[in-house]
Design goal:
The chain is 73% helix and 0% strand. The protein has one domain (19-168). It is built from six helices and no strands. It has helices at 8-26, 30-42, 45-62, 78-137, 146-152, 157-168. The two termini are 46 Å apart. The chain is elongated, with a radius of gyration of 30 Å. Keywords: Membrane, Transmembrane, Transmembrane helix. It comes from Candidatus Kaiserbacteria bacterium RIFCSPHIGHO2_02_FULL_55_20.
Length: 176
């Protein structure tokens, strides 16, 4: 009979992801919430269609094609140009706010990934050391393996950071 794989780790991973996501959203300001809401609404086909419809209606009114409604912005539609420009400014700012929030969230995710990678590296190193001790205790004949010896050494994070900074020419990496 086949053994059913343990779903525990996957459930734990999902819970961790949800907890991280909820923490990110808990730190959300009202401006973040508003910009995210507006970005979700403005970045849609219905919003595009509504804009096009308003512009067409505006132009038809102001060239006199709709009887009973007086023109208020005759050709060359200077008021429409101003409204469209202001809309573009507001939409651009909303998108920039949302992008900045996404960038902050990505920075947090990167930091979490780095911390997980460092912990995994430490655990792997410990496992290699333990396996080496078990093999020696059981008197398993081992070849000299310089790479394995190097892998059993503790990872020098300061050295790695210095190397990265030296190669990139930058000096503003977060502490590992």
């Amino acid at each position: 009979m086949d053994k059913v794989p343990d779903a525990g780790p996957r459930i734990r991973q999902r819970r961790i992801r949800e907890e991280i996501k909820s923490r990110l959203y808990m730190k959300q300001t009202w401006v973040d919430s508003l910009s995210e809401f507006l970005t979700l609404k403005f970045g849609t086909v219905p919003f595009l269609i509504a804009n096009v419809a308003v512009f067409i209606f505006w132009i038809l009114i102001n060239i006199g094609d709709i009887p009973g409604i007086g023109t208020f912005d005759p050709y060359p539609f200077n008021f429409l140009t101003m409204v469209v420009s202001l809309e573009a400014i507001v939409l651009s700012i909303i998108v920039l706010i949302t992008q900045n929030r996404q960038s902050r969230m990505e920075d947090i995710r990167d930091q979490i990934d780095t911390e997980i990678d460092v912990r995994a590296e430490e655990e792997i190193t410990k496992v290699l050391v333990m396996l080496d001790k078990v093999a020696r205790h059981l008197e398993v004949p081992l070849e000299e393996d310089p790479e394995l010896e190097r892998m059993k050494e503790r990872t020098d994070l300061k050295r790695i950071r210095t190397e990265i900074e030296r190669h990139s020419g930058q000096r503003h990496y977060p502490q590992l």
